[in-house]
Amino acid sequence: MAKERRSLSGKVVAITGGARGIGKTTAVALVRKGCRVAIGDLDVELAEQTAQSLGGGTIALSLDVTDRESFTSFLDEAERQIGPIDVLVNNAGIMPLGQFVAEEDATARRMIDINLHGVIFGTKLAMARMIPRNSGHIVNIASQAGKAGFPGGATYCATKHAVVGLSEAVRAELDGTDVGVSCVMPAVVNTELASGLKEARGVKNLEPEEVADAIVEALETGRFDVWVPRSTQYIATVMNLMPRRGREAIARFLKADQVLAGADPAARAAYEDRAAHSEPGLEPEEVSAETAD
């Protein structure tokens, strides 16, 4: 007998990086489920436009996930306006690409700050609110790059491996409580972040709505491992049974090694420029060398 799904109606959800992409689409899906949503983003103007378009009492707040005080203020204000946080979706992230040896140290630090420290801050702050109430759910958006290594995105892969490991450990720490964790691992999603990426053989790029639907399903069922599409979990399981050379040969055959490394620089130019300015205090001259390619 299938497990009865939990209702999300009336739940208070905070989403980081919610002004666009997966964050925005997830907000849409959750508003439709009757949730009250707070979206946090560095681009407050766009966040406000998004919130207005979503309706349902959605609010937009300023958020710099790399700053613990900013994250605390975001959650505090969300709770003041719409109630205690039931769900936190740690979605904010960036993906600058390029050869690892040529990567600027500032680029690596920014990725680690946003993709990893942002998730660490959010998870700690959410746990501090949820554990005393013995209820709540934390959704960490990782990637299938958190389960393998893809040339052209070494530091990005490192941050997503870290998010997977963090989620596993936190799940174990929360064992025995009614606070849940989900780790979402999508393949390539058709958002600005994935501009110019190649498709691997047999794995089509996803639409953000597919990821949003998987997040909703995870919240309703309490599922931890959220592979999107789900079929890729079976592929990964079979490949992990093979010796390394076999796995690498299959990856080459599927052209998985070209998904990030073969990205079209011209198609990614606008995104790479925005990602290079995705942390407060960065002036154009500080990042110009990183975006020249």
Description:
The protein is an alpha/beta fold and 293 residues long. It has one domain: Rossmann fold, CATH 3.40.50. The protein is 48% helix and 13% strand. The chain contains ten helices and seven strands. Strands 3-2-1-4-5-6-7 form a seven-stranded parallel beta sheet, with helices on both faces. The protein starts with 11 loop residues before the first strand and ends with a helix.
Q: Within the largest sheet, what's the order of strands?
A: 3-2-1-4-5-6-7
Radius of gyration: 19 Å
Shape by Cα distribution: globular
What is the total tally of β strands?
Answer: 7
Helical content, roughly? 40-55%
The main β sheet shows up as:
7 strands, parallel
Low-confidence stretches: 281-293
Distance between the termini: 55 Å
Might you state the CATH topology name? Rossmann fold
Notable traits:
7-stranded parallel beta sheet; 13% strand; 7 strands; disordered C terminus; Rossmann fold; alpha/beta; 48% helix; globular; 293 residues
Describe the secondary-structure layout.
Layout: E1 12-16, H1 21-32, E2 36-41, H2 44-54, E3 59-62, H3 68-82, E4 87-90, H4 105-133, E5 136-141, H5 154-173, E6 179-186, H6 208-221, E7 225-228, H7 231-240, H8 244-253, H9 265-276, H10 284-291
Parallel strand pairs: 1-2, 1-4, 2-3, 4-5, 5-6, 6-7
Summarize the structure.
The protein has helices at 21-32, 44-54, 68-82, 105-133, 154-173, 208-221, 231-240, 244-253, 265-276, 284-291; strands at 12-16, 36-41, 59-62, 87-90, 136-141, 179-186, 225-228. By secondary structure, the chain is an alpha/beta fold. It has one domain (12-291): Rossmann fold, CATH 3.40.50.720.
